[in-house]
Every structure is written in C-alpha cells, then in structure tokens.
Design goal:
single chain; about 260 residues; Rossmann fold; hydrolase; FL_hydrolase_MqnB; Futalosine hydrolase; Nucleoside_phosphorylase_sf; menaquinone biosynthesis
C-alpha cells in the first residue's frame, strides 16, 4: 500500500505495544500503515493501539482504512415472496456477486457471526439486547472511492471462522442478501474507529470464492495485484477527502463499547 504514496518517501517505523506503525510523512500530515493481524479481535486491538497513541500525541487520525483480500460471494437467485401481479408467489431476483480479482468497497461492515445460535436459527447480538453488528462508512466517501477504483459496493461480512461449505455460504447469503464478500478484520477495525469517533472505510480484493475450500482456486497474487492497483487509484480520494460525516452504526449501542492484509 505504501507504493500508492511513493511521493511521501520511505516509511519510518514507530513501535507501539503489540504493533508497529509504518509512517509516511510527518505526524498528522501523512499516512500511517499497520499490519493489524488476522481476526476481528487482534485487528481491533492493533487499530485501537494506533488510534490511542495518535490521540495522546495530539495528532488524532481523521480516517481509518481497512485494506485486504477476501472471499467473494457468487451471484445467486434469492427466494422472495410476492411477485408483483402474482400475490403470494415466490420470485427470484438475482443477487450480485464479487468474482475473483474484483474489488469490493463496503457500504456496510457487518459482524456475521456475533450473536447466538438458537433452535430457530442464528440471532445477532443486537437481538439479544446489546451491542452493534454493523458500521456504515461515510456515504460520500464510499461513492467517491467506488468511482475512482471501479469497485462494487455492498456489505462486507466479518467472520471469525472462514466459510468452508456451500451450506454456510448459502446461510450467510440468506441472512445478508447484500453481502458481496467476507473477511476477518473489518468489523474489529470499525469498532476501534467508532470508539474514537473516526470514520472507517473497507476495501477488499477478492482472492477466492466463498464456499467449499479449494486452495487450487485461490488467486491471492492476482488479488494483491488488484488491491495495489485499486489503492493507487484510491489514494487521491483519501488525500482530498475531508471528514465531515460522523461514523455510522446501523443500530444504537446499548452497552459500552486502521489497514491490514488478510485473506478469507
């Protein structure tokens, strides 16, 4: 990702507890990169450490961008009741997908497995009366970033366990019909950013289909190349964007409650 900001010069490493910040430019004037780690917990901890250090130094961040690779959902037909003109009959609108090598920008960052299993199915933690499961990046930033990169926009799911069966892929898509991709860090990064009232953006390049694990079908190198190219196109948007929209959550939190390479 540092290649997209080559004019800033070589990065300078700033060690922090549990994470190293790679700084391009001076504090408050450039870009800081961290490898946040795998999974939502470590990503949240790493991001929170960087955010807190910057705030205590008097140079708080204005934006957090979560960048990495992901699994992409295939296009699918959704069963929905009530076709217009034919009451009660099902119709099957086509759900979009994200093919290998494509870019996805999250307009919603959703924790897909934060909740409880019940006899009637999965309940998100919000249905249990606390927490939040979705963060929304600023709409104007998502629009500008999608225009610059050509990325598709939709929900990016955060999971703690990567999907490895067709049944789980179908279940996730049924619960989240707008989902284009799944990864393992976005929600953790977004939670840390929200705690500091900093907006967040998530950009993913698809390296593999969501579903049965088939390592022969993974295209991690191609996805990383697409991600590097996409982030290069995104860089001018980030440099010119002024934070004027507060970070959004889909649900109000009822209890108290920056970039990484990761695959799905």
């Amino acid at each position: 990702m540092a290649r997209a900001f080559a004019s800033a010069g070589p990065p300078r490493e700033v060690p922090l507890p549990g994470v190293a910040v790679h700084r391009l430019g001076g504090p408050g004037t450039g870009l800081d990169l961290i490898a946040a780690g795998v999974g939502p917990a470590l990503a949240a901890a790493s991001t929170a450490t960087a955010l807190t250090a910057a705030a205590l130094a008097g140079a708080p961040y204005g934006l957090v961008v979560c960048v990495g690779i992901a699994g992409g959902f295939a296009p699918a037909a959704a069963e929905l009741p009530g076709r217009p003109g034919s009451p009660g009959s099902p119709h099957r609108p086509r759900l979009p997908g994200a093919p290998v090598g494509s870019l996805v920008l999250a307009d919603e960052i959703t924790a897909a497995d934060l909740g409880a299993e019940t006899a009637d199915g999965f309940l998100p933690v919000t249905d249990l009366g606390f927490g939040t499961v979705t963060h929304r990046p600023p709409e104007s930033l998502v629009r500008a970033a999608a225009s610059a990169t050509g990325a598709a926009t939709g929900t990016v799911l955060t999971v703690s366990t990567v999907t490895g069966t067709a049944a789980r892929a179908a279940a996730l898509r049924a619960r989240h019909p707008r989902a284009l991709a799944e990864a393992m860090e976005g929600f953790g990064v977004a939670e840390a950013a929200a705690a500091h009232s900093v907006p967040v953006l998530e950009l993913r390049a698809v390296s593999n289909p969501v579903g049965p694990r088939d390592r022969a079908a993974w295209r991690i190198g191609d996805a990383l190349a697409a991600l590097t190219e996409g982030f290069g196109k995104l860089a001018p948007v980030l440099e010119s964007w002024n934070a004027h929209e507060p970070p959004e959550s889909a649900e109000p939190a009822q209890s108290a409650e920056p970039a990484e390479p990761a695959d799905s």
